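Before the break, one more example. Copy the sequence into your notebook; we will annotate it together after we see the structure.
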Amino acid sequence: MLAGAAILASGQALAQVAATGDPSVPAEVGTDRWSLYASALAYFPPESQDYVSPVLAADRGRLHFEGRYNYEALRTGSVWAGYNMSAGGELACEATLMAGAVFGDTAGIAPGYRLSLRYSGLELSSEGEYLFDARDREGSFFYTWTELSWSPAEWFRTGLVGQRTRAYKTELDIQRGLLAGFTHREWDLTVYLFNPDRDDRMVVVSLGRGF
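Here is what the structure looks like once it is written out:
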């Protein structure tokens, strides 16, 4: 629901940027300089094995490239290429439309997206994909991770998180929880607590760095 509201709110502005090259696009979108971001998410599910999901993203202007492992499923990798768009000023919107190839224990193709809306200290961000399983049609599914956060200080944020995944077993189709994030220079550390009101609550720890 949060992702859908964000897409509806920003769709018109992003379409204008893509079609006309609106000058409100931030200058960094058009730069020729590469920017990299590496992260690793450690999952501690209650009834499945613990695992780490590393992600490496690279951007240059409107181009976006990404590699993931243990993301769509365990022992599964994926590579992505996408197109960056952004618009707005005080209310800033950024979006990336992507296409990916998935290989390993699960294989297929996947269209995906990244989306964020920021206003003052509030941010709504979402990423998702629909995996078309090449080996088993019934294995196709929609994955999403969505956050709504508030930053009372530059180094701290807190908020809500929701996800839909098949990387590990869960009784809930959509898991929901709380987050607390900390930033120091180029480093980001975020701790997530999913399903805090249930016996099968789960912790996820994310550590990332920009280059």
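The two ends are 33 Å apart (CA to CA). The domain at 2-19+35-210 is CATH 2.40.160.40 (Porin). Try to locate both features in your own notes.
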